[in-house]
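During the second half of the funding period, the structural biology subgroup turned its attention to how the target accommodates small molecules. The most pressing case was adenosine-5'-triphosphate, which had performed well in the primary screen but for which no bound structure existed. We therefore specified the complex as follows and requested a full 3D prediction, including the ligand pose.
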Amino acid sequence: MPPLLVVNDLHTEFRTGAGLVRAVDGISYTVDPGETVAIVGESGSGKSVSALSVLRLIPDPPGRITQGEIRFAGRDIMQLTDAEMREVRGGDIGMVFQEPMTSLNPVLTIGRQITETLEQHRGMDRAAAHRRAVELLGLVGIADAERRLKQYPHQLSGGMRQRIMIAMAVACDPKLIIADEPTTALDVTIQAQILELMKELTRRLNVALIIITHNLGVVARYANRVNVMYAGRLVESGPAAEVYHNPRHPYTMALLRSVPRLDRPRQERLDPVEGQPPDLTRLDAGCAFRPRCRFAVDVCAMKRPPLEGTGNHLAACFRSHEIEREAGAAA
Ligand SMILES: Nc1ncnc2c1ncn2[C@@H]1O[C@H](COP(=O)(O)OP(=O)(O)OP(=O)(O)O)[C@@H](O)[C@H]1O
Ligand SMILES: [Mg+2]
């Protein structure tokens, strides 16, 4: 089966007072139908910009997609008209963002927001849209749907609002959902419930999912594949279990040391990734992670390591083989 989403050599830039920010600097990846792909990386690494580019939601100015190809369900996203793009967003591609309060309209009832989506994207009449809204609330585990649909966003808890966002994301039978930090604003216990719900729904409805997250525990438990971003590029990509257990990039290793591991009986000390993320307006010709990397050698300053490897586990590091050996020995 061909991939559902193909992102090929995507470049997205922002012109800022401080200079040109190459927020996404040549990333390529695919998402298969029904597959869950996680994008992880520190703040500012380009995760959101890469996702917003796929939705063509980059504010222009100051931003622009300058190069690359995005194909979704066989269509060239870059060639679609604005009207066609509005159809795709919320239709074939559902979206869940970090803070539902900013994505939900505060002056419309929950019910009206859901039925509006259904009327707009699926041409349903009010009554059909209402029946579907009731069904959707059941699907995301919200009891007493008729009463909830009459409420406004501020009358619901954070976890409940995120369930509503998920209901809206799946409302029009999307092929893909893009979720950008969908649980970061929630309590830990609620986070787990929301993640379980997304996992269950994407499986049941056979929807592909791109989940952007800081939390590597999410990656291990919920994703099929992981893309690790650093300074606008992919530095590692592979099956989730492989990346989690046998990281091949020093940045991924550092990230893994900085989060609680589910697979370690007793937690060793958690180390934040040392050093500062790079200034994207001042990147040189070498590997962007080099200043923070204890494996760095001369060649790392001369050119960017390409993303390569065996099979489908890729890393952008000149020393990935030695690193893998060391990680294996330490485990
Ligand atoms: N509207 C904008 N104008 C200027 N620069 C921007 C804009 N949006 C994003 N950027 C820059 O693009 C880079 C990547 O940002 P992005 O939001 O994708 O990071 P992120 O990985 O999602 O971080 P976080 O984990 O904090 O959400 C950052 O340097 C950011 O400052
Ligand atoms: Mg972000």
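Two results from this model are relevant to the next phase. DSSP finds 13 helices and twelve strands in the chain. The CA atoms of residues 231 and 288 lie 7 Å apart.
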